[in-house]
Amino acid sequence: xxxxxxxxxxxxxxxxxxxxxxxxxxxxxxxxxxxxxxxxxxxxxxxxxxxxxxxxxxxxxxxxxxxxxxxxxxxxxxxxxxxxxxxxxxxxxxxxxxxxxxxxxxxxxxxxxxxxxxxxxxxxxxxxxxxxxxxxxxxxxxxxxxxxxxxxxxxxxxxxxxxxxxxxxxxxxxxxxxxxxxxxxxxxxxxxxxxxxxxxxxxxxxxxxxxxxxxxxxxxx
Length: 221
Fold this sequence. Notes:
This protein has about 220 residues and is mainly α. The protein is built from twelve helices and no strands. The longest helix is centred in the N-terminal third of the chain and has 28 residues, at about 1-30.
């Protein structure tokens, strides 16, 4: 009779633990950001988890809107929460938690843009953004200035290289389709497009403030 009783006690104990954990989780979700921060400063992991669950999706969406990179945005959000946990005992937040976290996402995203504004990958994403938002661009003076900078850069591309670049970017032809159309190898097509992007990137050097300013007006408004 002792063994069944012992098993019952263990099962009851486990149920009690589960019930208590669920109660804690429910109570945590109803806390305000200020209350969660107070718990976080004491090292409360449940409070940290609730802050993460409450804000990670919003921060991720915001960062993706700026960087146009889901992978980079995931790293940015991770960095924000790692920093939040590591500095929990000395946190000094003036105002609400939400704006504080958004500002962190903004700063890290802009740092990414500053580092990558001349990279060919970033130029490609920028070109795609302009193509996908042509109507809005027509109504946005700053992005018109950005388009002028890119057009000036494209004008520096040699004629034959430009023809290949435009077939890819304007007509959305694949490397294979371009190679068949122009009777050249796919490797040549790929190299020419890569070189064209490098020319654009190089041409944009020295104009970071113009490019960044235009991007920020569009992304941060």
